[in-house]
Design brief:
Number of helices: 13
Number of strands: 24
CATH architecture of the largest domain: Alpha-beta prism
CATH topology of the largest domain: UDP-n-acetylglucosamine1-carboxyvinyl-transferase, Chain
CATH superfamily of the largest domain: Enolpyruvate transferase domain
CATH class of the largest domain: Alpha Beta
Length: 440
């Protein structure tokens, strides 16, 4: 029997929780450790199923890891194999990120075609085409990507569309390639910038990360480095949506609104007050705190974001788009907010073609949602009703949590193994905000 999350909703959320390290930054950082024979130290790794899966993949290839004082040291000095086996990678699409580092360092890699959430086509064609431009020979054999190259060469690679994992995979491979690689139409997500910071600390020469053109000057070797993974903007955005749907006053320690500007705009339109601030009561703007250390922290205060919501939210449209547009990973949560909003909103999904699987489950709770292709028309209702529902992917799970928190009565969310791939100790964090939530 799979675990469930039981939530009795209908109460505002008040209090403070700490946002964990970003899953989508931690995973590429873990695979980047394959690029060097020297140990690397990663701090702020979230305690998630996907992180454990990534460490299992690394271990299977011979990389050792140890944990102490909240930090993880990965030592990939002795690789036993350059094969990432299907049994370990089938549930986690990010395993494809082993391909670039292995190919660059060892000259060969065999990685199973990725699995993960069933939210639409997420082909690796752009990864493969990029590696081939860099001189790799690639074949698809028995469900595996088999790649070989004596040494990758720098190349000009124009991506047909921005791809986060594709940009990360090619950037890691290019770090050890011969010559200069230019990635055009690269994804601009903060997680890519975070990876570039880590790679540069290892001795790479990368510029332009966070912009549409990234330039990588290949080096002969990378070395040991330490890196602190950025906070998870999608986890922060989920709690912001929950507060918007339920009302209340919530402080999210470590959250950075500069990574969530599109969501912050929507929240303000729906009636919430959202600020970058610190928990001593000094509200700030959306920029840096000015302490000069660049990490948004000082000794006597904790940086974060605060949301206050006193009324029923107003319905607000959203169209997903690559960063800095509205994130597809927060589309389901925003739909849940609009389920209890005043008015009618249209949610348009442009990134993935099969990402409305949460809509029928929200309808079980009384939501009024009409699906039309890649758009959902959401008419807000005065209140949702608790019901048994089933999660279908990570962010759909989060949407059901938001809806359950706002609903009257008790909901049981089944198959929360999806949720636990992307949210650390969610029931504990919800209880810290005064919610009635328990894992069963």
């Amino acid at each position: 029997m799979t675990a469930k999350l039981k939530i009795t909703g209908g109460n505002p959320l008040c209090g403070s929780v700490a946002i964990s390290g970003a899953k989508n930054a931690a995973l590429p950082a873990l695979f980047a450790c394959l690029l060097t024979e020297e140990p690397c130290e990663l701090g702020n790794l979230p305690q998630l199923r996907d992180i454990k899966s990534a460490l299992a993949v690394l271990s299977a290839m011979g990389a050792e890891h140890s944990d102490a004082n909240g930090k993880t040291v990965v030592n990939a000095a002795r690789l036993r194999t350059t094969v990432a086996p299907y049994q370990l990678v089938k549930t986690m699409r990010a395993s494809v990120l082993a391909l670039g580092p292995l190919l660059a360092r060892a000259g060969e890699a065999t990685v199973s075609l990725p699995g993960g959430c069933v939210i639409g086509a997420r082909p690796v064609d752009m990864h493969i085409a990029g590696f081939e431009k860099m001189g790799a020979e690639i074949q698809i054999q028995n469900g595996n990507i088999v790649a070989r190259a004596k040494r990758l060469r720098g190349a000009n690679i124009k991506l047909p569309q921005p791809t986060v994992t594709g940009s990360e995979n090619l950037m890691m491979a290019a770090a050890l390639a011969e010559g200069i690689t230019v990635l055009e139409n690269a994804a601009r997500e903060p997680e890519i910038t975070d990876l570039a910071v880590f790679l540069n600390a290892m001795g790479a020469d990368i510029s332009g990360a966070g912009e549409s053109t990234i330039t990588i000057r290949g080096v002969d070797r990378l070395h040991s480095a330490k890196h602190f993974v950025m906070p998870d903007r999608i986890e922060a955005g989920t709690y912001l949506c929950a507060a918007a749907a339920c009302g209340g006053d919530v402080f999210l320690e470590n959250a950075d609104l500069s990574h969530l500007s599109a969501l912050a705009e929507k929240l303000r339109e729906c009636g919430a007050e959202v600020l970058n601030c610190n928990d001593s009561g000094d509200d700030g703007d959306d920029g840096d705190d000015g302490d000069g250390d660049g990490d948004g922290n000082s000794e006597n205060k904790k940086r974060g974001a605060r949301i206050t919501m006193h009324n029923r939210p107003r319905a607000v449209d959203a169209v997903t788009a690559p960063y800095p547009g509205y994130p597809t990973d927060l589309q389901a949560q925003w739909m849940a907010v609009n389920c209890v909003a005043e008015g009618c909103a249209t949610i348009t999904e442009t990134v993935f073609e099969n990402r409305f699987m949460h809509a029928p489950e929200l309808a079980r709770m009384g939501a009024d949602i009409e699906l039309r292709g890649n758009a959902a028309r959401v008419r807000g209702v005065a209140s949702l009703s608790g019901a048994p529902v089933m999660a279908t992917d990570i962010r759909a799970s989060a949407a059901l949590v938001v809806a359950a928190l706002a609903a009257r009565g008790t909901s049981e969310i089944d198959r929360i193994y999806h949720l636990e791939r992307g949210y650390a100790t969610m029931e504990k964090k919800l209880r810290a905000l005064g919610a009635n939530a328990e894992r069963k």
